[in-house]
Amino acid sequence: MANMIATRDAYGEALKELGSINEDIVVLDADLSSSTKTSVFKKAFPDRFFNVGIAEQNLIGTAAGLATCGKIPFASTFAVFATGRAYEIIRNSVAYPKLNVKIAATHAGLTVGEDGATHQALEDISLMRSLPNMVVLCPADAVETKKCIFKAVEYKGPVYIRLGRSKVPVIFDEGYEFEIGKGVQLKEGKDVTIIATGVMVSKALEASDELAKENISARVINMSTIKPIDKDIIIKAAKETKGIITVEEHNIIGGLGSAVAEVLAENYPAPMIRIGTMDTFGESGDANQLLDKYGLNVANIVSKVKEILNR
Amino acid sequence: MGKYKELENIARKLRIDIINMLKESKSGHPGGSLSACDILTALYFKEMNVDSSNPNWPDRDRFVLSKGHAAPVLYAVLAEKGYFPKEELMKLRKIDSMLQGHPDMKGTPGVDMTTGSLGQGLAAANGMALAAKIDNKSYRVYALVGDGEAQEGMIWEAAMFAAHYQLDNLTVFLDHNGLQIDGFNKDVMDIEPIDEKFRAFGWHVINIDGHSIEEIINAIEEAKNTKGKPTMIIARTVKGKGVSFMENKADWHGKAPSEEEAVKALDELGGGING
After folding, report:
1. Hey, are the CB atoms on A52 and B157 less than 8 Å from each other?
2. B134 and A58: CB-CB below 8 Å?
3. In 3D, which of A63, A91, A61, A26 has the Cα closest to residue B158?
4. DSSP 3-state of A169
5. What are the residue boundaries of the structural domains of chain B, listed by start?
6. Residues of chain B with pLDDT under 70
7. Catalytic residue among A13, A17, A56, A210
8. Residue A210 is among the residues annotated as catalytic for this protein
9. Which of A130, A140, B194, B238 is the most exposed place for a label (fewest CB within 10 A)?
10. Spatial contact of B111 and B74, defined as CB atoms under 8 Å apart
11. B116-145 pLDDT, tens per residue?
């Protein structure tokens, strides 16, 4: 059994490490520091942590002002508030002037669990992806999260980092190299390609193992950068396998599935099925039970792979 | 004209530039640009420590035009200060111009923050003031907020923040001309008592005549001497100030003058066409 760590925990640790390396890093939170794990940074660097209170618009606006003065602000709250409540502030005060603000939002997707639909962001990738100048990252595990956070600091400009609440299996070792804009092939496969992001990557790997038992060879690609999307790896997969399945803990509209479909439609049309929430809100429940109920599980990936191969 | 004759003359020249710019662009916001001329004059030509040859100088004082639609007055100031040639003013709002309809920090030298969507500038100014505190720097941050803009919820989020973090290096002007697009503030959505509201939010509040250079300068000094809290200067102003037929008329919020109207306005301002 793999080690289980939530990406938000890895985020807190990464911030703490970065805090001692880079004096310009400041962290802002909107009264959720114990949940987003910015509290780890707060404890280590109280002079560079600022709680804005329950005021997400101000969270982003203040971060923008700090960025104009050379600071590297990380602004954190739940994904639904960060990208929804503060959307237009992100658009006009961060993305348009291309300010160096990092929006690290936790509690994305159904795996928020018991808090239910109001708190489960299923459209945040879509909102952030359509903003010019915005980089969108969605790491798969704790190791990749840490690498993402470090790379986000190296990159000068706005970055949205999508993180989760629930513990997920650690799938990478420390030697893993993450690069913004590069998808990573985790498993070779000739029959079909599964492109997954975030917490669904470990499920895609499991599905590939299941399929192997039935002599179906499924390539697995981790698409942790949703924008800029890695076109080459998608087109190559379309050419070399018989179809593509995308898997994301997000609405099938506007997220990874859409990004992949756009690349395929314009470059190399190929059979494709998007797995995600089917244009619906979530609900309360245990995180894993929710993933099962909404088809974000190994069984559904296996089933969709077979469906595409039988077309 | 008295003690501040020179500054008053600069403000008059800015008003002339604004009319000329808007006549040329055939769109834009004269009312709120004219009401803010004296405030920006006092800031940029008396108070602020800035260097037009080094617009991004890290230790400069900052100015955030939170009511971004008053961009023409900011552009007129920046051109007068030498950030870019005055000819650029005649390209306002035209394609490929460095002067966008609302301020764009990436395109225009001297613009410290991209603004235009109301309510956002004050939070950005907070961030700048906070950065100065973190770095123990002595630069000050100024912002201009519209009175109608005070209806935005985000202004009050930011107002709380500035007081909570004791941003005494932040001085904000409220351009209180009493008018917004749909009419008088009091009819659209009353903001009064605006001074008491900011006081209750923990700010030092000063009420002044926003067209008296002397009162503006004195208020800025008072703000600099106020420790432990941000200062809000409620500047009573006249929308369209300086052009009789534009004064106190909501109609002139976002409408450019015609050729004839511009001639009349420039005549009143002692400018002459393109003068």
Report:
1. yes
2. no
3. A61
4. strand
5. 5-269
6. 1, 272-275
7. A56
8. no
9. A130
10. yes
11. 999 999 999 999 999 999 999 999 999 999
